[in-house]
Amino acid sequence: MNKKQLRHILDTIAEMFPDAHCELNHSNPFELTIAVLLSAQCTDETVNKVTATLFQKYRTPEDYIVVPVSELEEDIRRIGLFRNKAKNIQSLCRILLENYHGQIPEAHEELVKLPGVGRKTANVVVSNAFGVPAIAVDTHVERVSKRLGIAKETDSVLEVEKHLMAGVPRDEWTLTHHRLIFFGRYHCKAQNPACGICPLLDVCKEGKKRMKTGGNRKSKESSTGSSTVLT
User: Fold this and answer.
1) Percentage of the chain with pLDDT > 90?
2) pTM, rounded to two decimals
3) Residues 198, 200, 206, 212: is their CA dihedral positive or negative?
């Protein structure tokens, strides 16, 4: 993809979602880290429902480690992989107290050392909590980037991130991350993308293919009972 095409994409999604932002509710870097950890294979909506009470009960790393892990598991039971996540949260909190004075480290290389914190989580935390430009590639960002031709279908998550970092101006990384998520979550959905009204259909091979298939199906349906069936 050339720079002009990418600029067209960035400007279009900026117009569609000018107020795109992190939808995980949090009030500090520690809460954001816990929320992002919980969000793996789970919707932000469900995470926010759980953290609404979780963050009232647990306010500091100390709060998470003074309870049995079974109690924490029960508190986050609605979250997918809740047992493993409860263990990671307690391990993370112990490390924060032992090595970081109970504070979330600002450095990306330190964040990824924490249990349950991978590259995507670290990117979300540094960009949203500490203002460091970063692009976190979640399922929405990956899907949209590949559909729009920013990345190849066979690219890994890391390769998608590298394509975006190479093509998007650094000062737009964080906003682009949020806008791509909103675009994928509310417009270019996995199962039912809004191809028919998409302003980026001109650069989307996937969308053109879907529209062609949909058009053929409608033609067949409208021709039922006729001696001629369009294909």
Assistant:
1) 84
2) 0.86
3) positive
Residue the block writes with tokens 């509310």: 186
- Measuring CA to CA, how many Å separate 68 from each of 25, 65, 81, 123, 191? 25, 7, 17, 30, 40
So which residues are the catalytic ones?
120, 138
Per-residue pLDDT of 149-172, as tens digits, reads 999 999 999 999 999 999 999 999
Cβ pair 133, 119 in contact under 8 A: no
Furthest-apart CA atoms within the chain: distance in Å = 78
Residue the block writes with tokens 């980037």: 145
CB within 8 A of 110, min separation 6: which ones?
100
At residue 217, the pLDDT reads: 43
Same domain, 37 and 54: yes
Q: Which residue has the higher pLDDT, 227 or 97?
A: 97
Same domain for 175 and 213?
no
Give residue 25's domain range: 1-192
Q: How far apart are CA 116 and CA 81, in angstroms?
A: 11
Judge if 218 and 148 occupy the same domain: no
129 and 228 in a single domain? The answer is no
Domain tally, the chain: 2
Examine the domain organization and report whether 175 and 223 are in the same domain. Answer: no
